Predict the structure.
Amino acid sequence: MNGRVALATAERVLHQLRRDRRTVALVFVVPPLLLALFRYVFDGQPETFDRVGGPLVGIFPFVMMFVVTSVTMLRERTTGTLERLMTLPLSKLDLLAGYALAFALVAALQAAVTCAVAFGLLGLDVEGSVVVVAALAVCNALLGMALGLFASAFAQSEFQAVQFMPAFVLPQFLLCGLLVPRERMADALEWVSYALPLTWAYDGLRRAVEGGDAALVARDAAIVVGVTLVALALAAATLRRRTP
Amino acid sequence: MTAVRVRGLDVVRGSTHALRSVSLEVPSGRVTGLLGPSGSGKTTLLRAIVGVQVVRGGTVEVLGLPAGSPPLRSRVGYVTQAPSVYGDLAARENLAYFARILRVPGERVERALELVDLSRSSRRPVRELSGGEQARVSLAVALLGEPELLVLDEPTVGLDPVLRRDLWSAFHRLAAEGATLLVSSHVMDEAERCDSLVLMREGRVVAAGEPEALLARTRAENLNDAFLVLVEGA
Ligand SMILES: Nc1ncnc2c1ncn2[C@@H]1O[C@H](COP(=O)(O)OP(=O)(O)OP(=O)(O)O)[C@@H](O)[C@H]1O
Ligand SMILES: [Mg+2]
């Protein structure tokens, strides 16, 4: 591991993202727009918007980063730049740390923009601390990034990589408890939900929004960070210097 | 002096036996051409030499070390057949990134750009460049680290005769400075520019040696004919 190489990689990834104006627009404009949509869909039930909107602020970054990262890494594989990097003095950890650093920065900006719109313009009202919600949003974005890096190993085309979004993310979204409380699901699903990282991400957000027990929020965040590290290790295992 | 020593190399790719018990030596400080028809295993052999190919058997030794050993990563330069650079970045930005990975000073970027004659279009995104220009950006990346061994997979495809001539003289200049070059090609007139040749067919080496020796052995008038004799007669 060499910090400077990881930093160079992070700068390169950010540089590429900056060139891609549309992706930048998607990353920063879509989450606030979706929240605005929720706000007016629940126009007559502001308490529902307050209940759902808070956690959503922290879940959108997870979804966006999953897609952006899996496609970026897939491109690295299909254009041969990954093969080239694997012949150079760059460790897998440098590469993954570079990606993590770049997307953590993007995630922080995204969380800041989304929070500003949600709490400033849309009048979202939460009991808990906005800063904690934003920090959890960044953790979740990194979880999405790590899962995206891992998932990209199983895609052969960008089209497949994009399909992983509904395949990996939608079930977690349905089961995490945001739409229906988990106790009301079929027992089997409730048990499955405990094995899914987004469940813990959601629990942390819900508690933070409600101003709940800080220790439990910290535990949920720790689980999210732990799963992120495991996913990064799995992603590292899928990066092979030698390929068939 | 031998830069690369391959012994009994066997590689299976998917359902193809891509290399069958390949043995060869690449002399150091010279330009060696790797020739053979499409699908004969040139790319596979080069990938094994730079250590990115899963191999089934045999040994590959590069600069005295097993192929793919970590110390070789800054001593061997590899240019893949398809340009492998970031299309959304400019040539200069690509080179600057790879220079940081190789931990070489930034001035090398200018020098590599000049060597491939790209100083003028170095600020446009690579994907907006022509195919030949993209290939040269990819080549420039491999030149950055001033590697002892340069492995080039068809580096002159799609280039005009003037540029090809210039690149080949650059290759010989690098060899004169002590570098070893292994260059694949399926253009026969490039074979004449090599100091030594390796000819492949269907995953095997069918002939290797200096161009004059191949001519003498086949009693052919030119390398093109010598090739046809060796490939069809083998
Ligand atoms: N990724 C792969 N998966 C399966 N088989 C492959 C793969 N790449 C190459 N092959 C097979 O291995 C054999 C050797 O291929 P290779 O790319 O080494 O040939 P080549 O001499 O470089 O050809 P060309 O001059 O067209 O570049 C071919 O028969 C090819 O079909
Ligand atoms: Mg080839």
Summary: The longest helix of chain B spans residues 161-176. The mean pLDDT of chain B is 92. Chain B touches chain A at residues 13-14, 50-54, 68, 70, 73-74, 76, 78, 80, 82-89, 93, 97-98, 100-103, 125, 141 (CB under 8 Å).
